[in-house]
Specification:
single chain; Endonuclease, Chain A; four-stranded mixed beta sheet; two-stranded antiparallel sheet; 8 helices; 11% strand
């Protein structure tokens, strides 16, 4: 029902008419089925979708059942984070001073819980993780960090995990000593 003194436009009346023909009375309500909501939302966008098109859309969703695999593939392509943290930059600067070739945010797909490592040194087969105190729950660490560390070790990688507290206090000499263990 339109409000008193309010006249609906012809376009709006046509949309409501199409909804009524489809058996949808009223606007999107909490008691409507998802199918009705989809039809209604599509109708309100001036895009009436035929039954054939709806069938094709649902088949497309069924063909891509494994959404987690698709998401995993997409995550492998995106570079995250956009900006390196200050502790990562400090370690990168130390590696540059030591003339060690390294790559940042390399996607490690060889393990079950694949992810982008902070720093990878291919010549040493070494992964350096710069763990922030807050995000990685200093001093205990995240469960996923422990799992990934074990998986990387099983695949033959060497792991150097450094806490933010260590990095902030660290000088080049101390970092070189830690790195020499893995050479």
């Amino acid at each position: 029902m339109p409000q008193k003194g309010y006249k609906q436009t012809k376009d709006h009346r046509n949309k409501l008419s199409r909804l009524n023909k489809l058996g949808i009375t009223g606007m999107l309500g909490k008691h409507q089925s998802n199918r009705q909501k989809i039809i209604a939302s599509q109708t309100h966008k001036n895009k009436f979708v035929s039954l054939d098109t709806r069938k094709k859309m649902s088949l497309a969703k069924l063909n891509d059942k494994d959404l987690s695999a698709r998401n995993k593939r997409n995550r492998a392509k995106q570079i995250s984070p956009v900006k390196d943290t200050s502790i990562e930059v400090k370690i990168q600067d130390y590696l540059k001073e030591l003339n060690i070739e390294f790559f940042t945010h390399q996607y490690i797909k060889e393990i079950e819980h694949s992810y982008q490592c902070d720093i990878l040194i291919p010549s040493l087969n070494l992964v350096i993780e710069c763990d922030g105190n807050y995000w990685h729950h200093y001093p205990i660490g995240n469960d996923i960090d422990h799992i990934r560390t074990n998986e990387l070790l099983d695949k033959g990688f060497k792991i150097l995990r450094l806490w933010e507290v260590e990095i902030r206090e660290m000088d080049l000499k101390t970092f070189k000593e830690k790195l020499d263990i893995y050479s």
